[in-house]
Amino acid sequence: MNYDIKDISLAGKGKLRAEWAEREMPVLRTIKERFAKEKPLKGIKLAGCLHITAETANLAHTLVAAGADLTLCASNPLSTQDDIAAHLVESGIPIFAIKDEDAKTYYDHMAATVETGPQITMDDGADVVAMLHSEKQHLLKDVIGGMEETTTGVIRLKALHSQGKLRYPIVAVNDSQTKHMFDNRYGTGQSSLDGIIRATNMLITGKTVVTIGYGWCGKGFAMRAKGMGAHTIVCEVDPVRALEAVMDGHQVMGMNDACTIGDIFLTVTGGMKAIDKHHFDNMKDGAVVANSGHFNIEINVDSLEEMSETKRSVREFVEEYTLEDGRKIFLLAQGRLINLGAAEGHPPSVMDMSFSNQALAGEYIVENHTKLDPGVYTLPNEVDADIASIKLNAMGMSYDTLTAEQDKYLNSWETGT
Ligand code: ADE
């Protein structure tokens, strides 16, 4: 078996961590049991580009139980958990991922994964789709469909499709309600704070925490920072979202103002240069900057490098930049995803729902690909309802059903006051 990981001797530790995560993934466990009997992905070659984490290990085992022939590479150079990569290799799954790999190794690993000639692709950020639609177009002929995990990836796919260039159908897993309402909000909320705290060991209460971008991820992060006692400021370009942030109890202002008063900054915009040179110019001494958006383009790290007299590593995942006037700015996890770089990513309980959507999307592609034109699709609403129902059940919660009379009323117009 061909693979490239850091150290196979870490496999035992990885197995224990994957088992620990599995305890909190009841929906995925239920799907795995069914998949093991029904084998819906039997013989399907699947190339995945995901963060190699304990939660991903459980998805990988589920897809293999379904009969898939799976190869995985990392979807970010800094997010790989080397013990998990070792555990997956030991359980027979080829992995191409090493934590903190350089850009060339990252793309070499992706090429090795894509060159397995997949029928289904599974992306977190659309890098595999981008590779298949550029230098590896000769491999497109075997692809029947794909899945995409994250908001940024879905945006890229829609851009590719709007240019008429997308060559196969892709399920936007991110767009399932049981994905973005939980993973993006509660997952990013907790794991980004976790990453900032692990990297800095700073007390959050009393700090001024600036969230840049108030999508689902920004909402979750600002809410959790507020819950820990921070003075929260939100910066947004969309007036409706900015208004929502005001009514959620945050202070809202432009980044040109926020940059002068924030202690900790987190970018979650999906866009570029949300923190730029003119912001660094005006930040307080000791400001901490981090990113939780998919790509490391949200913080203009190049300008910070150029502006700085010196740079040194002061803790794991903390770079200290000293500017000409003596102010220090601390950049966390190289401006890459703080939650996966400095912590372990979202906890398994939310990844349970995200990865249940991934597993079911794989089955959906196999069953429906002949009916689907190239395009970006969302799983049917019933899948969300099933996932939520199993999750509630596993949490020991119940929910109501309408009586026939209530149902009839809700589908009628005759009865008024
Ligand atoms: N994305 C965010 N958190 C993650 C995790 N724990 N595993 C895989 N992908 C993730």
Biggest sheet statistics: 8 strands, mixed
Supply the CATH class of the largest domain: Alpha Beta
Helix content: 40-55%
How many beta-strand segments?
Answer: 15
- Per the CATH scheme, the topology name of the largest domain is Rossmann fold
Helical/strand content category = alpha/beta
Assembly context of the chains = single chain
**Backbone shape:** globular
How far is the N terminus from the C terminus? Answer: 71 Å
Compact description:
By secondary structure, the chain is an alpha/beta fold.
Features:
417 residues; alpha/beta; 15 strands; 8-stranded mixed beta sheet; 17% strand; 2 domains; Rossmann fold; 7-stranded parallel beta sheet; binds adenine
Q: Would you kindly provide a written description of the structure presented here, covering whatever features stand out?
A:
This protein has 417 residues and is of the alpha/beta class. The chain has 2 domains: 8-179 and 347-394, Rossmann fold; 186-341, 3-Layer(aba) Sandwich (Rossmann fold). It has 17 helices and 15 strands. The chain has helices spanning 11-22, 26-38, 54-65, 82-90, 103-114, 127-132, 151-162, 177-200, 216-227, 239-247, 255-258, 277-282, 301-307, 338-341, 348-368, 381-394, 404-410; strands at residues 45-50, 69-74, 95-96, 120-123, 145-148, 169-172, 208-212, 231-235, 251-252, 264-267, 287-291, 308-315, 318-323, 328-332, 375-377. The strands form 2 sheets. An 8-stranded mixed beta sheet has the order 9-8-7-10-11-14-13-12, with helices on both faces. The chain has a 7-stranded parallel beta sheet with strand order 3-2-1-4-5-6-15, with helices on both faces. Helix 10 (239-247) links the parallel strand 8 and strand 9 (251-252). Helix 1 (11-22) packs across helix 3 (54-65). The longest helix has 24 residues, at 177-200. The radius of gyration is 22 Å and the shape is globular. The mean pLDDT is 97. The structure holds adenine (ADE). Adenine binds at residues 50-51, 53, 55-56, 187, 340, 345-346, 351.
